[in-house]
Amino acid sequence: xxxxxxxxxxxxxxxxxxxxxxxxxxxxxxxxxxxxxxxxxxxxxxxxxxxxxxxx
Amino acid sequence: xxxxxxxxxxxxxxxxxxxxxxxxxxxxxxxxxxxxxxxxxxxxxxxxxxxxxxxxxxxxxxxxxxxxxxxxxxxxxxxxxxxxxxxxxxxxxxxxxxxxxxxxxxxxxxxxxxxxxxxxxxxxxxxxxxxxxxxxxxxxxxxxxxxxxxxxxxxxxxxxxxxxxxxxxxxxxxxxxxxxxxxxxxxxxxxxxxxxxxxxxxxxxxxxxxxxxxxxxxxxxxxxxxxxxxxxxxxxxxxxxxxxxxxxxxxxxxxxxxxxxxxxxxxxxxxxxxxxxxxxxxxxxxxxxxxxxxxxxxxxxxxxxxxxxxxxxxxxxxxxxxxxxxxxxxxxxxxxxxxxxxxxxxxxxxxxxxxxxxxxxxxxxxxxxxxxxxxxxxxxxxxxxxxxxxxxxxxxxxxxxxxxxxxxxxxxxxxxxxxxxxxxxxxxxxxxxxxxxxxxxxxxxxxxxxxxxxxxxxxxxxxxxxxxxxxxxxxxxxxxxxxxxxxxxxxxxxxxxxxxxxx
Lengths: 56, 503
Hints:
heterodimer, A: 2 helices, B: four-stranded parallel β-sheet
């Protein structure tokens, strides 16, 4: 799990002026979007698999 | 023989102290007899305080009874004047009202003559009754304040807690099972996508009813979420003071603030949930800046969905068809992309989550392999048992069919998609492609996630006017791409992103 301190290391200079609360908000958003992406990726893989099966 | 009625009263505290109504009645009856009065009715007031008249139904009935013509001159007998009232002005006022019909109030244990001295005495006794009550109140208040100052919660325990005594000291404990569900409640409220009613439903689903003894309602949610106690602060609203406490907490200050801001202060999701209109109460009317609501208008053959302003004070209310508004909004979103910070962070979070998923996947497959091994053992046993005649051919066949079916189901489950370490690069590529268009991301979301994204992306909502959208504040996680908007959207003027005051 990515914590605020890990996020600070990752982002380095980019977030020098940001408070912990702002970083936490960015982190919340990243977690939210990452879950959507993983779901969407899973769906698209299933779709590809079905298409492959259908086409033999 | 003159008539009398008896009025008896006990408050809740006095019931505990065994200040019984029956003993009051007996004393009053004896007093009536001694005064040669015939008792025609008894009014029993149970569990009522005499601080005010409100909440004393029997007293109100008594007054109505005494004001009847046929009851003129009747005597009201009370055990003590403090049974009649603990507030001097109320007590004397009531006596004055009754005296208009010649009705007199007498105390069985504090006799006062019917003359000037006696009347003054009655007044004095009522003053003492009130003073006694005030002293009790002061003592109680001082006790509560002292307990509060020492960091002890002196009132009714908040939901989920219980007063108890540990090592000879009064304390509060968090009841087993409550920590998890209350903590989840705060987290879910902080997300900002659930209404109070939905939060209550989720509480009940998590077993709140069984623990608390009754199901949660939106009022329960309010009672819990609005209390700072749950993150470690005691509030005494009467004295307007706060103090940290050392009892076990269920949430932290940040989550508590998020939950309260989301649900109560900003009113972001207080509205009823209507999945037909995802932008409901999120888009503001350009004329009055009030949020648009939405509904279906009846046509000749079908119903037409609209977003519209319903503010009475709006001189030019906005009204727009659902299709137009939602299509325009989707186009508007195409003009945004993730900020560079968010992109960097997202990549790290994605890889982290992928690792988590891979671990989960490995555990899942290991458990399925174990199950397959067990099924294989079952098969061997079944065949042996059939060979030894323990199981008949028919029984063995049934058992082997069941084993085969379960094995097939596991094969299907395991063959389903699983995350792979080699997938990382592909997923990052997929994410980049997927997020190049926030409009595409929007389309993939369900109702709750759409509301979440709206609230986070545009904290001050969006204003709409004649096909154009604008906002006063954009989340720093997103950035505007003007070039894309100009090329693709005839509806959206990207430079309107910082407008609104001129709309």
